[in-house]
Structure formats: structure tokens, C-alpha cells
Amino acid sequence: MSDAALRERICLLAKSLFDRGLTHGSTGNISARTPDGGLLVSPTGTSFGRLDPARLSRFDAAGNHVGGDRPTKEMPLHTAFYDTRNRTAAVVHLHSCHSVAWSVLPDADPDDFLPPITPYAFMQLGRVKLLPYFRPGDPAIGDAVRGLAGKRSAVMLANHGPVVAGLDLDAACNAIEELEATARLAMLLRGTTPAMLTPEQVADLVRLHDVAWGD
Length: 215
Known about the structure:
Helix content: 25-40%
Order of helices and strands: HEEEEHEHHEHEEHH
Radius of gyration: 17 Å
Structural class: alpha+beta
Oligomer: single chain
Strand order of the largest sheet: 4-3-2-1-5-8-7-6
Shape: globular
Largest sheet: 8 strands, mixed
Number of helices: 7
């Protein structure tokens, strides 16, 4: 995909996420690897519903900011995924309602954030790590992701929002939508005794789809 086409695709997918209420106001950020090894990143303080392709922050392959507006303050979070998962081509971070709600409840498992309700979350996300609260923009968020040594493609920032790294832009957006949908199901089912996927069924999905499972 050319630089120009990638800019348009970032803005199109971001607006789709915004229009369906998966992030709001000026929350969330998105980045994608360019053909020359650089990055295009949503600028700080911008809305997913109104991104301008020409004003996206542009980084070269060495990590230097070479064009566009000032980037999101969550750059340490994005670069941590690119640096530790070498197949990452896009990173998306949202402030989606149900996943944030699930992150602050005692039911949430820090090592396996999403309960085994449907196969799709495992197929697209693997096992999601729940990280503790960090102040937005804190470089320590990036350190926490680096501490996972590339073993997780998705994390949930407690009291904040999900972050997903994908093999391409569409895959990252699809996966983070699946994360939010599964968290919504978890909230709907809370207090009931649903029939979850068995450990054997989950293991079968992990094997068949070669997902990022981590330790």
C-alpha cells in the first residue's frame, strides 16, 4: 500500500471506529508501518472521527519525526509493540467502554483478561494481558509492554483502554473490535453461570490458528 493510500485507510478505519462509539472525543490513537519502514501516527489531541490524512504524524525508519502534526503522547506504547513484535504493521489503542468497565472489576484475570466465551477473541487476539493503571502518556506503559517480550499481541490498560498490534491495519482494527465485543459479552453475562469454552477447546484454537499465547 502506498503512503497516500495508507493515510486514507488510517483515517477511514479510525472514523468507522469513532462513528460506532468504540472511542470518543479525542481519545484513542492509531499507527501503521509505511512502505519505507517509517510510521504514520494519529496526532495528539485529535478525534478519530476527524483525522486529516495530510496531517498525520510521519516518522522515518530511524524513528525521527519528519512531518505532520505532533504525534500522540502514547508513542512509547506504540514503539514498544513495533520493537518487540517484528511482524507488527499497525497498532490501535481505544478507550472503549465495555473493556474499560471489565478492567476495573474483580472478575478480570490479569494474565487472561477475556473470559473464554467465543472462539473469535482467541483466534484474533490470543491471550490478552491486563496491565495495571498508568497515567496516560507515561513512558512506563511502554516499559510494561516491552517486559512482555513480544509474547502478547494485545494488552488491556486498566482504567484506560485496550491496545492491539496487528499484522496489518485492518487486522489490528478487527481484533480490537473483537476485544471490545468480548468484554461486552462478559459484562452482559456477569453474575450468571454461562457455558464457557473448555480448556481443551481453547487449546485447539491456539494450535490451529498459531495465536500469540504468551506465558
